[in-house]
Sequence to fold (315 residues):
Amino acid sequence: MRRSAPTLTLCLALTGLAACTAADTQAPPAPGGLTAQAGSATSVHVMWDAAADGDGVSGYQVFRAGELVRELPAEKTMVDVTGLAPQTAYAFTVRARDAAGNVSAAGPAVEATTPAAKAEDRSAPTAPATTTGRATGPRSAQLTWTAAADDTGVTAYDVHQGGVRIHTAGPGETSTTLTGLQPDTVYTFTVRARDGGDNASPDGPAVDVTTPPAAGGGPGTAPSGFTATASPGTVTLSWTAPDTGRETSDYELHLNGRLMTTVQFGAGAVPVGRVEHRLTVTEPAGTVWRIKLRARLPDGNWGAFSAEREVTLAP
Fold:
C-alpha cells in the first residue's frame, strides 16, 4: 500500500524556540473574465481579469490548445498571441501562478477565429468620429464610440489610456466596459480602429472619465478641468484645485509618465478657484508632451491625478 508523502515544513531556530511554517501548496484561483479577439489575420488579443490582491498571484501562463505560448508577470493581464494562421479557430486558456510555483486550474477556454489575410493592405481605417464615456462604479467605466470605416473591413477596436493599449473590442462592437480601474481617478481614453493588415487608425477623440471615490473614501482628490496650452516658449497649465477642506499649495507635475517638477505656492500666494502655472519650454517645436498633475493633501499624501493632456510645443 502506497503511503502519502509527509507535509514539507520549514523550521527555524529562533532564540531557542523552533518556529515551523508549512510549505505553500495552495494553488491560486483560476483567472476569470477571459476573452479572445482576433486582431489581424495572424494575431489574437487575449485578456483576463486581474487577480484579487489576496490571491498571491505572481504571474500568468497563456495556453493555446493546451500548449504554453506565453508567461507574463502579475501586472500584465493581456497579450497578443502572434504567428497564427489566417482563417483558423484557436482556443485559449490562462492559468495563474504564485510565488511558490503553485499553478491554478485553467478556467473555461475561449475561442477566436482569425480573418482571411488581405494582400498588401496598407490603408489604415478611419478614426472613430466620436467617443463618450461614463464611470459605472469606483473601479469600472463604459466607453462608446462611432464605428470606423476601412476598405477591407475593421477587425478590432483598441482602447488606449496614457499612450498604452489597455483593451481590445471586436469589429462589430461600438461599446465596452473597462474594469480594474482605481477609485477617485481621472482617466483619459482614446479608441483606434484596426484592420486585418494590422493597420491602425489615428486616435478618435479623447474622453475623460472620473471614477467616484470608494465607499467611505471622502470627496474626490483629483484636480479638475485641467488644460494645457502651448505658445512660443511656454506651456500654460490651468486647473481647479480639489476640495480638500484646506488651501492646496503643492502640486506634482508629471511629464510623459515621469515626475517633472513640484509646483509650490508660498504663503499668501495660494490661488483660490482656478489655478494657472506657466512652464518655460526649451525643447524643440513639435515635441509632444503628455502632462498631468496631482495635489498634496492635508495629510501629506498625494491625491489622485488629473486628466492627462497631450500638447505639441509651439515654434
Remarks:
- The radius of gyration is 24 Å.
